[in-house]
Design brief:
The protein is mostly beta strands and 149 residues long. The chain is 3% helix and 33% strand. The strands form three sheets. It has a four-stranded antiparallel β-sheet, with no helix packed on it. The protein starts with 14 loop residues before the first helix and ends in a 10-residue tail after the last strand.
Amino acid sequence: MTILETVTMDAETPAATTGRAPAVPVAAGEAPGGWTRVCRVDDLLVERGAAALVDGRQIALFRTFDGRLYATDQIDPFSGAAVLSRGIVGDRGGVPTVASPMYKQVFDLRTGACLDTQGKEPLTVAVHPVAVAEGDVFVKLVTAEGDPR
């Protein structure tokens, strides 16, 4: 798997409350069940997105100024374009966000909820749990229904 450019936290993990990606128990170089190694933490630039292909699905990874990691789908639900990793990473009242470069909708990186629909019907972007083990970033894909694959 190659990193192209852009991570999310599972609200059910203890890390969601601490704001840090959970540690994934792995033996050296092994990916745990359901998790896919994407890149090294140091490969992700602060306040920039990066795109990756995980099991045939495009995701966008984000590292915020405070070191938190988030992953969403790369596809903008309003335009259908694979551009979210190119969005503007920010903060809205303590909520980490990304603004789509297409029509400027703003998404909560924790939940995928659209915070600013720009006059359109609200849509969400899928978010995926992210974990870090020994400096490696792992992502666990979530299906459209919200169940991990």
